[in-house]
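Hello again, I could really use a second opinion on something today. I've been staring at a protein lately and its backbone has me curious. Can you walk me through what the tokens say about the fold? Take your time with it, there's no hurry, and the full record follows here:
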Amino acid sequence: MIVGVLGAGQLARMIALAGYPLGVKFVFLDPSADACANSLGEHLLGAYDDPRLLAELADRSDVVTYEFENVPAHVAEFLASHTQVHPAPKALAVAQDRLIEKTFFNDIDIPTPAYSAVDSLESLELAMNTIGWPAIIKSRTMGYDGKGQSLLKTPDDLASAWALLHGVPAIVEAFVPFSREVSIIAARNVSGEMVFYPLSENVHRAGILRVSHRCANDPMQAQAEAYISSLMTALDYVGVLALELFEVNGQLIANEFAPRVHNSGHWTIEGAETSQFENHLRAILDLPLGATTAVGKTAMVNFIGGLPTTEELLAIPHAHLHLYDKEPRKGRKVAHATIRTETTEELNELVAQLSALADQVDDC
């Protein structure tokens, strides 16, 4: 079985590492000559919309998937006309545009912050009359890890925030006074079988995920499962999907979804019976899905921009290090480490040690 992957970054790398024990082979299409997954399969080097390379990828793959949601939707549609593509192009198109995404959430009764589309400074000023202060303005497309967005606290912020977007279509959202940020990851295979992972509680800084804790017996689990089940059913979704949520007064409000394996689920490699990466492959190949049962107490710490030494990291008890084989660069995710213990107290202590090391090299 050969799986084609659009993108050859760290998510593609972890998908491939999960696929090798299953006998799956990989072909990656990526424009970067030093893409970190290219040693784990064949690397088609070129643009994502190169017709010749897309035809080759489709011809050589039993199924094609992708590791990030900014692949042009027409590329996925082209591939889908020649081979199986999971998740389907519809999920990609919805996730790529924040206005379409928020509207889709509301259409299937998943609550969101108040929002409004804006395409000029004048329309932004008008929208603020109903959205209120504070608010966040975001580009409708191509935004991830906090890129393309600004916090609006007073009317004096509007002109500068709009200028930073360089006139691209945008969406303004009411700021949510959340008590915490959580995410749920689920998988659905071709036959419609679904499995759900325990919630993760997430901490971001500068728009980038820093730490995820797997939540045990979380009171919001059932509500999150209901939301993501509705979303996957409405999209006729196949693969792993992540839904990011805010908790406000015992109610979950949707932020966004990612039609792919997700950073907040990296803890599943050591902390669940079946990792999100293996279940993504099982789903797109229509194999029975693996158990998502948690193993121990688990959390994950990201390393952004730089790395401590391997010796420093592995000196921390119960640390599992995942290097991405990527050159350090400002704002770039270069590795993560998970901690799995038997007690919450020990977990918190060791995560604090890992986070301190991460802060020493963090350039954001």
In short: The first strand starts at residue 2 and ends at 6. The longest helix spans residues 344-361. DSSP finds twelve helices and 18 strands in the chain. The chain has a mean pLDDT of 94.
